[in-house]
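Suppose you are handed a protein chain with no further information: no name, no annotation, nothing but its sequence. What can you learn? This example shows the usual starting point.
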Amino acid sequence: MSRSLRPETRPDLRPAVAAALAEAVAPDTIADEARGFPGWIAGFRGRALAQGIAPGVFDRAFEGVTFQADVIRRDRNQSEFVKPIWDYLDSAVSETRVQNGRAALAQYGAVLTRIEARYGVDKEIVAAIWGMETSYGSYRGSAPIVDSLATLAYDGRRAAFFETQLVDALKIIQAGDTDARHMTGSWAGAMGHTQFMPSSYLAHAVDFTGDGRRDIWSDDPTDALASTAAYLAHFGWTKGQPWGVEVQLPRGFDHRLADRSVKRMPSDWARLGVRDMGGRAVRDYGRAAILLPAGARGAAFMVFDNFRVIERYNPADAYVIGVGHLADRLKGGGPIRGAWPRDDRALASAERKELQERLTRAGFDTNGVDGRIGPDTVSALRAYQSAVGLIPDGYASMAVLRRLR
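A reasonable first move is to predict its three-dimensional structure. Written in structure tokens, the prediction is:
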């Protein structure tokens, strides 16, 4: 299965950009491409049957399946513009979502407590993922999964991946957990209360209610919540360990140490002056790294191995912090106290590529130009920042790009 539960991670599009891009793919082009869809289904039928799908199951699942032009538009027109983490968290952990989460915990508290007892995953973490994915089940997606996955397997950017997901969706139907009519979700194939891809469902979904079906689609969220806990437990959730703790860094802190690869016990960090927001040393829950998601001007977090477990659901730092912080709020904690550089903005894809190109030309090799701020780019950026007297936080900001220009 893929590294994360869902096929890819992209924070919400800016509405105006999304609306403009929705018109970017010519309807006539999509209509032309759709003509080959019936022939593709005929060819795929043989491949699916070769993987164990019964002819009757296939034919019933594909009865009435149509090419979904809107899915292709969405797949091709994903914006290069993303929200900065502070805007993302403002909506992801809004007061409304916190209050709705507390109401959901009150309503399903007994079930979530039993799930926590069985899998060892904090009920607030499970509830937070539920809140982040579908606003506690209020919007689980209405796209027909077989239609969407077939469209993406036929004409998507990652056809092989989505064909595998489509076969897995047929296996779910064949097992009797649901039927094609009730198998709905997002346009990209994520399903149910907590948005499982079919492959993740097959590997990790559980029948917690004991009714013989792993039902993540119905109004009852029990199986979906238990499946989410089972998923996190499988990837090594440590009971009693936080995902992370907001911390304050001492004056003169060596920001080169704020790197996910630099892990120390909290007591070791405390000796360097790293404290929680109350000025106390963080308990020794396990080895931890210092994360600065918005650089030295933003909030700082000490993150533990459970941070990496949540990454298996969705690898974006903003998402993981959103889940963790929402869970903390559901436990009664307060808002993030550190300031965010709200006068800054996230770099667009073209700007990230420009940053990499300029760093490399300046003698700080990023080992390629792909628009992704990975470890090589961060390392090159830190080296550049150190060389020109900036704080070496490795944060790809507009200020650094302007300096390089």
